[in-house]
Amino acid sequence: MFWKTVFVILKFMSAQHANADPLVELENYLRFLKDSGYTEIPLEEDFNSLLCNRPITPSPVAQPISPPNTEVRMKKDRHDGDAAGRLQAVREEMGNCTRCKLSEGRANIVFGSGNPNARLMFVGEGPGADEDAQGLPFVGRAGKKLTEIIEKGIGLNREKDVYICNIVKCRPPGNRDPEKDEIEACQPFLLKQIEAIRPKVIVALGRPAASVLLGRKVAITKERGTWHDFHGSKLILTFHPAYLLRAYTLENRQAVFEDMKQALMELNR
After folding, report:
1. What local confidence, expressed as pLDDT, does residue 41 receive?
2. HSE (CB half, 13 Å, CA atoms) of 217?
3. Of the given ranges (16-25, 35-44, 63-72, 152-161), which has the lowest mean pLDDT?
4. What SS3 string covers the chain?
5. 120-124 and 201-205 as β-strands: parallel, antiparallel, unpaired?
6. Domains defined for the chain, CATH in brackets
7. What percent of the chain has pLDDT over 90?
8. The whole model's pTM is what?
9. CA 88, 149, 144, 30 torsion-angle sign
């Protein structure tokens, strides 16, 4: 029965992703089961039942939502001052920062990019190698996936409609998770960035960003899609694009797609 179930899974994955490696797809599906709390592979009848009861839709980056309300871009700026000036003041205060050990190995400070007047803000974990080299957030593989989510998924323009930054502004060695002292050194500047921009909606990308913003440990697979209040903004949690690339399952793509739909709906309220 075990191997028959595995065969059914592989057959389904091959049908959904004609050019994909079946073993990679199987690994992604097993990761999904683990993240969902399964300790055993569902039997064939359970797996087929899951498929029958679940709508199969294209990848979130391949199927745009209906065109977004033009008010997202056309509404008057709700800032009562110069957002770009406030943001520049934060950057100048940070200076050539040496407040934590991450400064010792960086090439560039990765402060943030996008529209200072954006009503939608994305907060990630930290710069990778590409970001460190260019001094811009989300320009590597995960960044390209985020751009797809923003532009193809919800029909917004990455440079004109959103602002993107990270909880730490320098690359952690080996892309490890930022450590407590590193987060604490950068957190005041993150909060000042948010205060300068005053977005209507903040999207926390992944566990570290969600945990920092909420001030507690977050189980992202259980809490993604949930809404929270954050200093006058609405905060929604979702998967980091890098996680989406590692576990590129239909379930994960649908989950991020639903989260982005909710964020866009909140923007249009």
Report:
1. 61
2. 1
3. 63-72
4. CHHHHHHHHHHHHHHHCCCCCHHHHHHHHHHHHHHCCCCCCCCHHHHHHHHHCCCCCCCCCCCCCCCCCCHHHHCCCCCCCCHHHHHHHHHHHHCCCCCCHHHHCCCCCCCCEECCCCCEEEEECCCCHHHHHHCCCCCCHHHHHHHHHHHHHCCCCHHHHEEEEECCCCCCHHHCCCCHHHHHHHHHHHHHHHHHHCCCEEEEECHHHHHHHHCCCCCHHHHCCCEEEECCEEEEEECCHHHHHHCCCHHHHHHHHHHHHHHHHHHCC
5. parallel
6. 2-52 (no CATH), 71-267 (3.40.470.10)
7. 70
8. 0.72
9. positive
Q: Return all residues near 181 (Cβ < 8 A) that are at least 6 apart.
A: 100, 101
Could you identify the residue written with the tokens 């097993």? 30
Nearest of 5, 76, 91 to residue 45 by alpha carbon? 5
Which amino acid, 78?
R
